Amino acid sequence: MKRTEPALRFEGFSETWQEKTLGEIAEIIAGGDVEKHKLVDTGNYPVLGNALTNDGIMGYYNDAYRIEAPAVTVTARGNGVGQAKARFVDFTPVGRLLVIKSSHNAYFLEQAINSYPIVVESSGIPQLTVPKLQKYKLLIPSLTEQEKIAEVLSAADELISLQSQKVAALKRHKQALMQQLFSTNGESVPRLRFDGFSEPWQLVLLKECAKVTTGNKDAQNKVEGGQYPFFVRSQTVEKIDSYTLDCEAILTSGDGAVGKHFHYIKGKFDFHQRVYCIYDFNTNISAKFMFYYFSEHFYERVMRLSAKNTVDSVRMNMITEMPIPLPSLAEQEKIAGVLSAADELISLHQQKLTTLKRHKQALMQRLFP
């Protein structure tokens, strides 16, 4: 039997929620044609074409036809179809956007719609129409209870937003640190050095620092719940019940998102035949230092060696012949230690962000029938 009341109610609310269609409680408006609106860099109203976009299309604004806030936008076609977003600033809807105008709480409607995804069946590009959205059913409490639910969930959203900003700030700080701590562009020393280090860095080739090889496994060799990490051509680490190497290593994709996926490991692991592995480091090399330098600069090197805007695959010599500015082992370890500490801090705050998102999700499951 379908529940008509949520598992969690605030004190003072006991009325049964009523099932309504959006057509009964709201006006559904289709976004207009982009060409009908003069798109300019500045203006009073953002031009929106996707429910999940907060800014104007490519930053465009206008002073023409607009929807007065509050309202809810729903993506009608393509990526994110059926996703809703409450709007509290007047805007102009265009393109693949539907707008819900209602006297009900906009944020409550956004959360309710996203809690029960709109199923869009299509043999081609998924598309949501005004008539279909009008028939969408949802359970509605009193306006007062809607506002109470919206208040609690929007507070959770604010916490999530603040934590997301903190994670982003920490990542920017680490990025700035790396730019300061590594010698680049032919410099003999980096811009930022720790006390006690003054010797110039030496430029060497990566092949002088470690060995490079590729794996001998395919994607189908992965084992769910396997014993060892299995590195494939993505940032996702799979599992496998075999291992080829037991050492400290750096791994990167040989094709696909070239120069975008990097892993560091110390222990037993296996890897795909199109994954490059840098291992067996010389005694004067910190593998962790090499990981940070390589992951920061390899993409730039690959693009510089390519005549195209994209690179289909990595050649062995792109790695082995890569110049590496190298300080003493002690300075390598100092730099690696600072960046590892930054990574740990980012990881802790990322975990907190994940926990906050799970908490909100659990709240939504109890606050909506």
Structural write-up:
It comes from Entomospira nematocerorum. InterPro entries: Restrct_endonuc_typeI_TRD, Restrct_endonuc_typeI_TRD_sf, Type-I_RS_S_subunit. One of its GO terms (biological process) is DNA restriction-modification system. One of its GO terms (molecular function) is DNA binding. There is one protein chain. The protein has about 375 residues and is of the alpha+beta class. The chain has three domains: about 20-140, Alpha-Beta Complex (Adenine-n6-DNA-methyltransferase TaqI, Chain A, domain 2); about 145-195 and about 325-369, Orthogonal Bundle (Helix Hairpins); about 200-325, DNA methylase specificity domains (Adenine-n6-DNA-methyltransferase TaqI, Chain A, domain 2, Alpha-Beta Complex), CATH 3.90.220.20. Helix content is about 35%, strand content about 20%. It has seven helices and 17 strands. The protein has helices spanning about 20-25, 105-115, 130-135, 145-180, 285-305, 315-320, 330-365; strands at about 20, 25-30, 45-50, 60, 70-75, 85, 90-95, 95-100, 135-140, 200-205, 210-215, 230, 235-240, 245-255, 260-270, 275-280, 325. The strands form five sheets. The protein has a six-stranded mixed sheet. Strands 2-8-5-6 form a four-stranded antiparallel sheet. The protein has a three-stranded mixed sheet with strand order 4-3-7, with no helix packed on it. A hairpin with an 8-residue loop joins strand 5 and strand 6 (about 85). Helix 4 packs antiparallel against helix 7. The chain is elongated and about 75 Å long.
